[in-house]
């Protein structure tokens, strides 16, 4: 059970760290290289990159919202070995600018590996299941973040 609790904490660190703009916390949850798959929402292809690059991109973008809240729950750890694991979790992600909201719900699938410091995400796939509000807030947030730099 200790591994499952540590994995759940790693997944929580990504969401809670991003909402708090605690980028070292987010970065610590990832292996040095990570593959992210947001094709269910945006199309395109999964992206493999250095975790530093991924987190820097989020750090440059997410502050363009007035606030975000990524609620990740119902963690389920599967295929746990001594060095690897898979996990799933449900999510609701709320993004706010002024009184406008874009809320997305769905599921994340994760692949993890363990090193001497703990469990780290090597891949994550987001599967959107529903959304409400104004998806155009994403573009507004990007513009706001770019203008602030």
Automatic annotation (TrEMBL):
<dbReference type="Pfam" id="PF13577">
    <property type="entry name" value="SnoaL_4"/>
</dbReference>
<dbReference type="InterPro" id="IPR037401">
    <property type="entry name" value="SnoaL-like"/>
</dbReference>
<protein>
    <recommendedName>
        <fullName>SnoaL-like domain-containing protein</fullName>
    </recommendedName>
</protein>
<dbReference type="InterPro" id="IPR032710">
    <property type="entry name" value="NTF2-like_dom_sf"/>
</dbReference>
<feature type="domain" description="SnoaL-like">
    <location>
        <begin position="2"/>
        <end position="125"/>
    </location>
</feature>
